[in-house]
Amino acid sequence: MTREQKQQFTLRITQANSTEMVVILYEMLLCYMDEGRNALNSKDRNGFREAMRKSRACLGELMNSLRLEYEPGPSLRQLYLFCIRRLAWAEGREKEDPLSEVERVIVPLRDAYGQIAARNQAGPVMKNSQTVIAGLTYGKNSLTENMADQGTGRGMYV
Fold first, then answer.
1. Does the global pTM surpass 0.90?
2. How many Å apart are CA 26 and CA 59, to the nearest integer?
3. What is the average pLDDT value for the chain, to the nearest integer?
4. What is the pLDDT of residues 72-119, one digit of tens each?
5. How would you write 42-94 as a 3-class SS string?
6. What pLDDT, on a 0 to 100 scale, did the predictor assign at position 158?
7. Residue 143 pairs with which residues in a beta bridge?
8. Burial code of 104-135, b = ≥16 C-beta within 10 A, e = fewer?
9. Would you give the DSSP letter of residue 153?
10. Residue 138 predicted with pLDDT over 60
11. What's the pLDDT score for residue 113?
12. Residues 50-73: pLDDT tens digits?
C-alpha cells in the first residue's frame, strides 16, 4: 500500500461511523490482495506473503467485529473463514486463483455495506479526533486539506 493510500485510509477511519469502518476494512483487504497479485506477477515471494498476511489480518478484524448472536453474524463468519483459508492456500502454493474467489465474496459484501453506510446517521466511531475540512483553495484544481482544532482536546478520554 502506498503512503498516500495509507494516509487516505487513516483520514477516512478517523471520520467513519461503524458501518463505514466495515467498508474501509473491505477496501483495505482488496487493496492488499491487489498488492499480492502485483508481487506474485513480479516474482516477489516475500511481498506476496506479506500482502496475504495483511489480507488475513483485515479478515480477522472483520471477524472480531461480528455480533454472532444476531444474523447475519454467523453466516458472515463462515464466509470470512472461507476467505482466510483460501488466502492461506494461495500463500502456501503461491497461486493467484484463490484471490479471485475471495474477491467474488468480498466485493458484493463491500457494495452492500456501502449502501448501508450511506444510510447510517451515527457519528464517527473515533471520538475527539481532528476535524478535516477539504476544499478547493487558491490554486486552480488544487485540493487543500485543513485541520481544524489542531491542538485542543485531542486524544482519548479516560
1. no
2. 8
3. 86
4. 999 999 999 999 999 999 999 999 999 999 999 999 999 999 999 989
5. CCCHHHHHHHHHHHHHHHHHHHHCCCCCCCCHHHHHHHHHHHHHHHHHHHHHC
6. 44
7. 136
8. eebeebbeebeeebeeeeeebeeeebeeeeee
9. S
10. no
11. 95
12. 999 999 999 999 999 999 999 999
d(CA 75, CA 62): 13
pLDDT reading at 133 higher than 70: no
Identify which of 97, 119, 109 has the alpha carbon closest to the alpha carbon of residue 29: 109
Contact 107, 97 (CB under 8 A): no
Torsion sign, CA atoms 69, 71, 75, 76: negative
Cell of 102: 475471495
| φ/ψ bin of 16: left (φ > 0), alpha (ψ from -120 to 50), beta (otherwise) | beta
The CA–CA distances, whole Å, from 2 to 13, 51, 92, 145 equal 16, 13, 25, 19
In this predicted structure, what is the pLDDT of residue 124?
A: 78
Assess contact for 36 and 48: CB atoms under 8 A.
yes
- Grid coordinates representing 133 are 475540512
Angle at 111 between CA 108 and CA 114, to 5 degrees: 150
134, containing H or E segment = strand 131-136
Q: Can you state the angle between helices 18-41 and 3-15, rounded to 10 degrees?
A: 170
pLDDT at 134 (0 to 100): 56
CB 125 within 8 A of CB 16: yes
